[in-house]
Amino acid sequence: MITKKTKMIMKRKKKEVYAFGQHICMSPHKARRVIDQIRGRSYEETMMILELMPYRACYPILKLVYSAASNASHNMGFNERDLVISKAEVNQGTTVKKLKPRAQGRSYPIKRPTCSITIVLKDTAVNENEKEFQRYQYTILILDLNKPGVLITKEKYTDMTCYDMYNNGGLWDKK
């Protein structure tokens, strides 16, 4: 039996909006503490959480989420009620190094960490009934070994598997 596997990916309308914040003077560890609380939540719930959390990292993240939502509503025409934070990540940026003068002519190095934050908002209203599927179409060819080149049967079947964690019920509250 000879198997031929062809991979087909169903095309979708673009439904994600990005916002990047780079060189934010803050430790990535402290920013991740806030980002972990908002990942996977809706836009309105995220804005409430960020306004009420008592951390300094909330303000730049609030500005980024607001900017991403503004991009979504203005550029793509999405409704802000249907937006969900599908991806939020914090990466370490460059370290700003300065020298502080100390007693007896010495100097002391000061290292200021920076971070870069990426926020991705996903619109859940676009194709809300249709999930993100990766579709595999298999074609099975059954050949006769006694007569080379003679095809006995040809069968096709399609296997559809969902890989979207947020629409598939894999979403849970973090911490």
From TrEMBL:
Database matches in CDD domains: Ribosomal_L22
Gene3D superfamilies given in the database record: Ribosomal protein L22/L17
Compartments it resides in: Plastid, Chloroplast
Any one GO molecular-function label of the UniProt entry: rRNA binding
GO biological process: translation
Alphabetical keyword list: Chloroplast, Plastid, Ribonucleoprotein, Ribosomal protein, RNA-binding, rRNA-binding
GO cellular component entries: chloroplast; large ribosomal subunit
Chief location category: plastid
Entry similarity comment: Belongs to the universal ribosomal protein uL22 family.
Assembly and oligomerization: Part of the 50S ribosomal subunit.
Protein name in UniProt: Large ribosomal subunit protein uL22c
